[in-house]
Every structure is written in structure tokens, then in C-alpha cells.
Amino acid sequence: MEFQSADITEIVTGIWTSMLGFPIETRGERATFDDESSVISARVLITGEWDGAVVINCPETLGRKVATAMLQDEDVQMTLGTVFDAVGEVTNMTAGNVKNIISGLCRLTTPNVTDEEDYSHTQDGRSVFEASFDCGDEAFSLFILEQAA
Predict the structure, then answer these.
(1) Which of 23, 51, 123, 142 could cross-link to 147 by cystine, CB 3.0-4.6 Å?
(2) What global pTM score does this model have?
């Protein structure tokens, strides 16, 4: 399956800018993260006529901003679980929109979120799309992986 950059950028911009209120810009190169910062990796599997995954990697600090924007409450106690839920939900929304441009019947799994592994590196699939985005002074990456046949 081939994904068009314009389609994916429109999906990501719609979620991050329209829903979260964060202006984003496409980066020319892959986002890198400081060794000291905790990186959150969220993955939603797409199964059915096409099998693959959508992965978003971002620094924990950006994940906390996402959680604050989603909860619309800066006073809420921000646990790592709350941050994981927010980044997982953004990944789920992204995967749902990606699923809509895939022909055929597909289903989504619930998000898997961790700060101990990079879901963009998989042993049983290949990357078919990758893009990184600037969000203020931080960046995040999006990967679409296709399950190996």
C-alpha cells in the first residue's frame, strides 16, 4: 500500500492543529530526541484487508502538552499514565483516519504505549511511510508500518 504525503500530512495537521490547537510544520529530516528525555512510543495496529500499524514517537514533554490540551485542565494531576492515554488517543485518531483511506475492511486495535521501546522498529514489518513534524520547540515522528506477508 502506498500512502500519499499530502493525505497523511492533512490527517496529522487536522488532529494536532484543529483538535489540540498546536500549529505544526513538516520537518525536512527525521525528528531526533535527546538521550536524556523520555520518548513515548504509541502504536495502533490495523488488521484486515491490509495489515500494518501507525506509530507516533514523541518526547514525554510534548506528550504532557498533548494531555493538558486534551483534558483542557492545567490543574489536573498529570501522571505518566495520563500522558500515555493522551498520546495513545492521538495515535488512535490518526490510525482511524489512515484506515479510512485504505480500501477494504480493516479494524483497529487499542493503542499500545510505552517509554521503554520504539515501536517504529519492528521485526515483522516494513516502514511504508515516515514523516516528522515540528510542534513549537519540540518534534514528533509518525510511521506507517506494513505487516510482512
Answers:
(1) 51
(2) 0.93
